[in-house]
Amino acid sequence: MADEKPNCKVVLANNIAKSLLEEVHAGLQKIDRKPLLVGFLASADPAAKVYADWTGKTCEENGFQFELRTLDREDLEDAILVANTDPSVDGIIVYYPIFSSRQDQYIQQLVSLQKDVEGLSHRYIFNMYQNIRFLDPEEKTKKSVLPCTPLAVIKILEYLRIYNTILPYGNRLYGRTVTVINRSEVVGRPLAALLANDGACVYSVDIGDVQQFHRGEGLRKRRHEVVEKPGWTLENCLPLSDVVISGVPGEKYKVPVELLREGAVCINFSSERNFDSGKVKEKASIYVPAIGKVTIVVLLRNLLVSHCAEQDG
Amino acid sequence: MADEKPNCKVVLANNIAKSLLEEVHAGLQKIDRKPLLVGFLASADPAAKVYADWTGKTCEENGFQFELRTLDREDLEDAILVANTDPSVDGIIVYYPIFSSRQDQYIQQLVSLQKDVEGLSHRYIFNMYQNIRFLDPEEKTKKSVLPCTPLAVIKILEYLRIYNTILPYGNRLYGRTVTVINRSEVVGRPLAALLANDGACVYSVDIGDVQQFHRGEGLRKRRHEVVEKPGWTLENCLPLSDVVISGVPGEKYKVPVELLREGAVCINFSSERNFDSGKVKEKASIYVPAIGKVTIVVLLRNLLVSHCAEQDG
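^ inputs. structure came back:
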């Protein structure tokens, strides 16, 4: 009588990306010219070049223009300022690492708000943490841009119906418990904040500690607060979590799958496989092994929005 | 900064019933005559009369015919047999209690399978527990009828998007933990079985004990199994549960809301309020205070299906 195989649904980023691309293509129909993304490559890291080429390919396949500007890192600041004021440029992407992390952050803040399709400007990041969803909170016409990788995870959770559309916008993760493994400034921490702002109870796990991001009982708070969970580890978080999202760099790390709640939804955003794919299928209801293809579509989506805002503004 | 009010969405049965009624009305368009439901009233319980009148009203408001046959209980058996073979009768409903519980069960089994719109025939109940979804498992043309109240709860959970349509049909509650309070043969136990057959981990709680209904790791089993949870009480079940469904008769019983998981979905199927409505809104993301109006639409839906099967067969 019993089936032999576990019932885990593996969802590939490609399929999720396709449904988002349809939206993007529909948007492109309505505009006069192909939006132009300019990439600045001043990084010595070969992975940066790979990512740049991949961006270019995806842009061209999907009706966007891409122009890669390879240059010495000393010329980068001026080149960004020129692109900022060039009306033919719709979006700017800079490939890191270039200098030190601190100086790279300085560079990133040079990109004008209107052309920052990665959503890394301080104003955007501030709005995201503060749960301010529009640049013009009164009129609500200009959405504040969200950083691409965390937004890609959200789009995936929407696709997987983890966001419950019966609940009001802004509260659609109410009742969900999510563990996010890794608390980097680039993805892990903003992601935990975004999910908690949407109503989830989020455990943000890093090497040293566990923090809970949450809007309080009855979601009474307008934005999330962060509480330390002293003594907590994955052993406390994973058995409670409906959704587990992991992005630990390096080949060695594996999520302890035996701690997962039966039927958990598991998403990997690391470039390595944080879940042993055989073991995770024994326990998870849904498993998303990688998210890169969604991230790049989210970038195109931001580029389209940025182009349209420019036309209107 | 903080809002004062908790963010609980109260969903009324009426709204859920409306969306199901649209389906029913669309089905009525396609047939030649109004389906006829015959009700047999031989019960001395005034509540039976109230329910009968309410059935009649709902039938007539929604394009069905209803005929109430009030009779002595000694004449009931023959009357059911006559209705069974009368081609103008599409569905039969008998209002209980009449005799002893045991004899009432005997009466219920007299109603022909084709006209049993309440889904109470042994064959239907057997199929439900065994997770057999069709009367003809090979051809899959005739759906096995599900009992109205448990089915109403399922329709509510579908409406509330607790069933995740990204998962394959039959597994759409995979990853959900549900507590069902009350294990009556009429609603509580079949409901626990139905939810577990659809992939949920269900804690079925009664005065004496807690049982877990579940299809095992990776939902490998084709149908649910039942495991005793010795020593368990609501204190163990409620903090684990995404969904809490309560149907305890009597005015006194209240679910201990302080044990609920933050953001739980709470559904009351008792005719009394098992949840203190003020307190539950502090903790729940969604609260459904009553389900009666959905149950009756489910009955109409079964009646329509029964009429159409007759026309085809």
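Residues 43 and 96 of chain A are 6 Å apart (CA to CA). The mean pLDDT of chain A is 94.
thumbs up if we can close this ticket
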